[in-house]
Amino acid sequence: MAAPPPPPLRFTSHRALADRLLFSTLTGRPVHISQIRSSSPTSPGLAVHEISFLRLLEAVTNGSHIEISYTGTILLYRPGLITGSAAGSGASGGVLQHELPATNSRGVSYFLLRLCLLAPFSKSPVNVLFRGPGVITSATPAGDMSVDSVRTAILPLYEHFGISNNIELRILRRSCLGTDGVGGAGEVQLVFGHQVRLPKTIHLLNAGRVKRIRGVAYATGVAASNNARMIEAARGVLNPFIGDIYIFSDVSSAPFLPTADGARSKTKRKTGVGFGLSLVAESSTGSLYSADLASPPQGGRAPEDMGRDCAHQLLENVSLGGCVSLAGAPTVLTLMAMGSEDVGRLQLGRGVLATEKTIGLGRDLRKFGASGWGIRDVDGDESDAVIVSVVGRGVGNVGRKMA
Length: 403
Known about the structure:
This protein is of the alpha+beta class.
């Protein structure tokens, strides 16, 4: 006789909703989330990007069950097996196409970061093409990083866990946030072909010193001189600290979308116009620190100001210390918690550990069955950093074990 399914874990509010759905899929525990923007008089319930993320989870899993209340304020999610882009699960030619609606206001990195955490535990390789009028490849005011930072500052972190083969993030068409604050019409493809039974246990205890800075300045549908002005301003701030700096300039035309008339009109309009800068600092021990900035949708910001602000943001992230930046901490801590049943250690800056996002991550992991974190000061070190010890849960790749 089959054992009864476990009761769903209960949460309230829309905060960290995507992360809770991610942990539910990784651990196999169903979740019940209520009071999702229930006090909002204009837009209660699930937002557009959250519904799109649920559709993505349904596409890369087999057997998931989703129930949404009439008002959208209550969600019940029962996860299935992570199958990736396996044949017969909606993938065509080994590529799963996921379309984002025009009203989406979050960057595509919102989806990429969670999908990258699911991919190592998939039964088959993950190959997802994000397309549609809502794909935004730049940084957004909501706090999403650009696709360039995901490629240069997040994906290299998987090498610490023995996950490094056949991983690629392709930017097929760039786009910034639309003038009305939604949409972008970009195109991004994630190829993640390295699946493992269990991530390796890591011990990252030495942050090292910054030895090089790399970056990408991008302009979509605007003059290429904006990139040169951003690069010059950023180097003016960073050159006194380090000499090994290289910032690549990428200029592309803006994507076009059909007008509101649709099929009755052949006219098209530009969207996703703007420019931005992504910077990544690498230390002598492989630690990565990133910074991102993009022009606001309404415009009115000088490229020189953006270059200086992005450089100052990078210096601030480096000053927080630790082996992992604030942007990469959720990825590393989640993989440590899902890894083999051994103690992994990670040096984090106090400013990174003390954020609401990191503390909330630890609480959610604990509720899904992971162990608590052990925290102690760094011995004989004057830096403002701590050692975080995490015991892996040994979740592993269920699909790989069955195969």
